[in-house]
Design brief:
Elements lengths: L4 H12 L3 H12 L9 H19 L10 H16 L1
């Protein structure tokens, strides 16, 4: 029986217990970092900060969050939390 690469990857991630931070770095490397690298540490730092605070948190939907961005998911949580707490 053939197993797809995606299934193998999901299995290996569960087996190794990848943390959310490892997932962010994997996404960063595959979606954002240029293949040619950066000309300076400052350029890399600024680009990575822009990825995390801009694209990853505000634009990129996450399956874990029911296809909401992390910022939208957090806003939804606090809205629902406040309505229950009243």
């Amino acid at each position: 029986m053939a197993v797809s690469n995606e299934t193998k990857h999901e299995w290996s991630c569960k087996l190794l217990g990848y943390s959310p931070m490892e997932h962010i770095f994997r996404s960063l490397k595959s979606e954002w970092v240029t293949r040619s690298g950066y000309h300076s540490i400052t350029e890399a730092k600024n680009n990575i900060i822009n990825y995390i605070t801009g694209y990853y948190s505000q634009v990129r939907p996450h399956t874990f969050n029911n296809d909401l961005t992390p910022n939208a998911s957090e806003s939804k949580y606090w809205t629902e939390y406040n309505s229950v707490a009243k």
